[in-house]
Amino acid sequence: MPRGKAASYDDQSEFILAQAAQLFARRGYPATSMNQVAAACGLSKATLYHYHKDKSSLLISIAETHVAQLAALVAEVEASTEAGEEQLRQLIYRIVAQYAGAQDAHRVLTDDVRFLDEADRERVLDQERQVVAGFARAVAALRPGTASDALAKPLTMLLFGMVNWMFTWMKPGGRLDHASIAPIVADLFLGGIGAVKLPEGSAQTRARMR
């Protein structure tokens, strides 16, 4: 009878993915070796291979785990009682919050999926398309009378253009954190630049009150 996984197997696997994502994000996937991943995890190379057969397997797991979490939050919001503008706002708030805790994985997804074999890359991209489709449905719902709205997808991609690249300019401890940025993105997308205001409780608001 085969042995079951140790109780700590899933925790260890999650830790390995987090360390690998950090290395890939900071050094780049091509420049990172399995030896370096093993060292960052405090594991022998043999133990690392027990979890992942090669570097490509690590990349696939990082990308698929991240996209699966995004798809899950879209499904959760769509299944909720929220509708119309509030549903789109919740999607924006949730995905920005998800990015806040997964910046390394998001950078890897953005920069390194191109290094995967075609079949693996297409599988990850198909999952991404499902996430985009969920947002596009919410956008289309705000444009009544356009059942096959040709602008829903382009508008959605413009929205993702705002949120997908935050990691390139947002810094830890900066004037605005992800929680402050999310309503700004929603206000800008839904109401235009005139609707944007500094969220209550943001770092800048607190500074002005001192």
What does this molecule look like?
It is a single chain. The protein is mainly α. The chain has two domains: 115 residues, Tetracycline Repressor, domain 2 (Orthogonal Bundle), CATH 1.10.357.10; 40 residues, no CATH class. 68% of the residues lie in helices and 0% in strands. The protein has ten helices and no strands. The radius of gyration is 20 Å and the shape is globular.
Radius of gyration: 20 Å
Number of E-state strands: 0
Report the helical percentage: 55-70%
Q: How many distinct folded domains?
A: 2
Distance between the termini: 67 Å
Q: How is the biggest beta sheet arranged? A: none
Structural class of the secondary structure composition? mainly alpha
Mean pLDDT comes to 88
Q: Indicate the CATH topology of the largest domain.
A: Tetracycline Repressor, domain 2
The succession of helices and strands, N to C, reads HHHHHHHHHH
Low-confidence stretches: 1-7, 205-210
Question: What would you give as the CATH superfamily of the largest domain?
Answer: Tetracycline Repressor, domain 2
Helices, by number, come to 10
Structural key phrases:
single chain; 210 residues; mainly alpha; Tetracycline Repressor, domain 2; 2 domains; 10 helices; disordered C terminus
Please write out the topology:
Elements: H1 9-27, H2 34-41, H3 45-51, H4 55-79, H5 84-100, H6 103-112, H7 118-141, H8 152-163, H9 178-191, H10 203-208
Helix pairs in contact: 1-2, 1-4, 1-6, 4-5, 4-6, 4-7, 5-7, 5-9, 7-8
Quick overview:
With 210 residues, this protein is mostly helical.
